[in-house]
Amino acid sequence: MPWASAGEGFLSGQFGRNAVNPADFEVDSLQNVASSGTPHVVVGLVGTSPSIHITQVSVVQPGGTVRLLGTVANYDSFDRVKAQFPLLRSDIGSDGKVKLRFENTGPNDSRFPRDRSRLAYITVVAPRDNRVFSERRSTAFSNDSTLQGPATYVLENVPATLRGYDVTDAAAVQRIEGNSTGGAQRSYVFPAAAGRTRNLLLVDAARPRVPLPARLIRFRTITPAAYSFLVVSHGSLMRPVGNVANPVRAYASYRASAAGGRHDTLVVTSQQLYDQFHYGEKSPLAIRQFAQWMLTSNREKYLLLLGKGLATAEGVRTAAGSFYHRQVPEKDAPVLDLVPTSTRSPSDIFFTAEWQRNQYVARIPTGRVSAQTPQQVVNYLNKLREHEGLGPEPWRKNLLHMAGGANESEFAQFQSYVNGYKERAEKPCFGGTVVKTYTRDTPGDYQRFPITINIAPELNAGLSLITYFGHGSPLVFDLNLGDINDPSNNYNNRGKYPVFIVNGCAGGFAYGSFTSIGEDWTLAADKGAIGFLADSDFGYDGQLDAFCDRMYQLLFNDPNWYGKPIAVIQAEANRRLQAVFGNNPNGVSLLMNTTWQGDPALKLYAPDKPDFATADSRLQIAPQAPETTVQASSSRFQLRVGVSNAGSLCSGGTSLGISVTRRYPASAARPAEVLRFEVPQPRRDTTYVFELPNTGNVFGENEFVVVLDPDNKVTELSETNNQAAIKFNFLQGGVTALSPPEFAIVSSPAVRLIGQNNDPKASCASMKWSWIRCRRLTAHWCAAPPCRLQLPQNGSQLCPRGRPRQCSMVLAVAVSNQWS
Q1: Cβ proximity of 712 and 719 under 8 Å
Q2: E strands present in 598-749
Q3: What domain of life does the UniProt record list for this protein's source (predicted)?
Q4: CA angle (203, 208, 209) in 5-degree steps
Q5: What is the pLDDT of residue 738?
Q6: E-strand spans in 193-290?
Q7: Residue 807: what pLDDT?
Q8: Are residues 325 and 463 in the same domain?
Q9: How far apart are CA 583 and CA 81, in angstroms?
């Protein structure tokens, strides 16, 4: 747990079954050990697995002989225990070292599946000669005398500048001057012990420990009610980059602007908080104490942790070797702990949740941008500005799902989870579309058998949300997307930045000395993601599904939460699920350790109003069955109207009015007609089919003007995209003779016959021509008067290219006095 519960802390590595067993540890610097008296050792052990522990403690003597000191038995699960054992003087080597061996010996049965422990500390207590080491500035020891009177110590090799102090009571330290007893001996008389152990200190006044120079610290007056957006950052991120003088201040300025929400912003550095809220000592508790102070006002706030933090036990590699990051000076550290997180189990909710009272909800919605450089701050800020400046583009309702797994059972189970999320996303209020679901069908461990997919087509076209369910880690998933910054992957989604929800182990662990997937995607310049929500520790599929399903419900379906910032919705999901999970440690860990990498006030696309839209290209005139064409003679026909709603599906009522105005040609001498319809409101893309009557004289070009919400009953995001028009030529049918024209007299012996089909969509098929009083037509084309000519069915060779309605034929005509 992030609050360092039982079994957590600064401990050794694990030892026991299926681990190092036995494990050896060494204590050094046991100098000047007296030949008399009995030394002893005190050990602190902590359980590391959910089982009963049995630990044998032995000493490895200087000659290599192993001597059992005793057994620490039956401490349970993650409990801690202390044990003391006597030592022999011969157990201490001449080099002042003692080696201890620890071996867990719980039986290998169902009661002890993983008998593992860790060592907290070893303390060796041994009598010493009364000698002071000249190379030491000070020597601390304990007085275990039970005498009622004062304790007197005569010490050898003592400089005259050595002073004694009784530091048993830190608030009442007593100074003891030494008295020379001849030569290099001095005696020190400490006050009466009164039967209790006293802590004593000898210090060489000639070589005092000089503290660092005093540094003036001025505490800042911070009024909790005066601020609504809190930024905790680091001085190294405030350096100029490009044309930005101070990226952190630029971020705060954006949040204070109209475009950024008009927040009252407060910027503090982690060092300021160490000084003002934790006595100058570096600790995540400084941020927690600051947050608790800000919570004394009930004004709504957001908390942005602007800078990378490192988990407590995270190691870093330097030129001198590998160390815990806290042991490496900032000037030598390859990765800086700029804004610390909680513990080994990283949680940013830790700073504001009342976890002491079993409440696992962030009382200030919190987000982290894990920037390590000023440029990365600028990268994210630029994307945030673009994201929050977008309008109701249709792509913003697109989602992409990914489901992994290690075997057939998990493939089916994880796919069922994401299919459930799909149903939620496509319902009101959001009415989105899952454009694609990628699945894994390769059995095996995701680290040994990684699968890489490329989502560039979907990402570049525009996605609002990418959701993954499967096994994971900070660096590898069941389905991997490749490096966002690798040009060969063709990820170019500038201005179209999605949010990730990752359901899997440690996908949200952005607290390592490496760069996690979430950091890569959120900090990439002009591409990648705008937010990344994932668990930083172990996750279990049933609880992950419950959390993700609740997030989808609140994000997409609940009118009371639709449109609120993601960090706010995360807090509400936690509030509802903590009653479901109860005291289940895995469930509590999920709630506390799910981290939001992104701005705490950022919202998923969730317009507060509908936005009905149509266009000329989305109107169509179609025949009413069983007819196959629409002509002036058709009694009815269809007008098909495509309508979309890129806005909210939870506001503006449930119905939509549509008017259709039909304007006839002037030759029809008819006034325009207006038809009105009431239809259910559309979701994302809907086609309405209206059956219109077709009576009277309609021959010629008709225009249909469609208006959505003609009475403006619904307040929309935009009223400029509600009208469209289409023109359609209603023809009579049949064929028109173009040459010779109707009733023409032809004197030429060679006649070119040209006819045109009145249906523009008709193909060149057959026509009939008639002549009155023709004398003789050669060959078989002439029949009894009137003479009818039938063109061949395959008349394509008679049709000029590009003019399929017109066909022609040249016939030789001879004049005769009789019919033929």
Answers
A1: yes
A2: 612-613, 619-623, 636-645, 655-663, 673-680, 685-693, 700-708, 723-730, 735-739
A3: Bacteria
A4: 105
A5: 76
A6: 198-204, 229-233, 265-269
A7: 46
A8: no
A9: 24
Half-sphere exposure of 354 (CA within 13 A, CB side): 6
Taking Cα atoms as reference points, which of 283, 280, 336, 303 lies closest to residue 232?
303
Partners of residue 124 on adjacent β-strands: 41
Question: What is the CATH number for 79?
Answer: 2.60.120.200
Number of domains in the chain: 5
Residue 44 pLDDT > 80, yes or no? Answer: yes
Does one domain contain both 474 and 565?
yes
Point out the domain boundary residue: 730, 762, 782: 730
Distance between terminal CA atoms of the chain? 109
Distance (Å, whole) CA 257 – CA 263: 7
Tell me how far apart the alpha carbons of residues 361 and 592 are, in angstroms, rounded to a whole number.
8
Give how far Cα 298 sits from Cα of 208, 565, 692, Å. Answer: 50, 18, 60
Measured CA to CA, the distance from residue 776 to residue 758 in angstroms comes to: 30
d(CA 715, CA 179): 94
**pLDDT tens per residue across span 483-536:** 999 999 999 999 999 999 999 999 998 988 889 999 999 999 999 999 999 999
If asked whether residues 724 and 665 sit together in one domain, one would say: yes
Phi first, then psi, for residue 707 (nearest 5°) are -125, 125
Do the Cβ atoms of 234 and 308 come closer than 8 Å? no
Residues written for the chain: 820
3-state secondary structure 306-345: ECCCCCCCCEEEECCEEEEHHHCCHHHCCCCCCCCCCCCC
Distance CA 502, CA 603 (A): 17
Which run of H or E residues covers position 274? helix 270-277
> H/E/C letters for each residue in 700-721?
EEEEEEEEECCCCCCCCCCCCC
- Domain range for 260 is 229-366
* Interatomic CA distance for residues 622 and 630, integer angstroms: 7
The candidate with the shortest Cα–Cα distance to 513, out of 372, 377, 378, 306, is 372
Q: Using an 8 Å Cβ cutoff, are 575 and 538 in contact?
A: no
- What does the DSSP assignment read for 357-388? GT--S-SS-EEEE--SSHHHHHHHHHHHHHHH
Strand extents, DSSP E, 251-294 = 265-269
Closest CA to 759 of 737, 730, 792, 802: 730
- Are 193 and 152 in a shared domain? yes
Distances (CA, A) of 719 to 173, 482, 612, 676, 707: 80, 42, 8, 19, 11
pLDDT in tens, 139-170: 777 776 666 677 788 877 778 888 888 888 88
| Structure-token pair, residue 97 | 């070292």
Given the structure tokens 């522990």, which residue do they identify? 53
Query: Residue 18 falls within a domain, yes or no?
Result: yes
Tokens matching residue 464: 């609002």
The two three-digit tokens of residue 354, written as one number: 């009342």
Strand 612-613 relative to strand 636-645, pairing: antiparallel
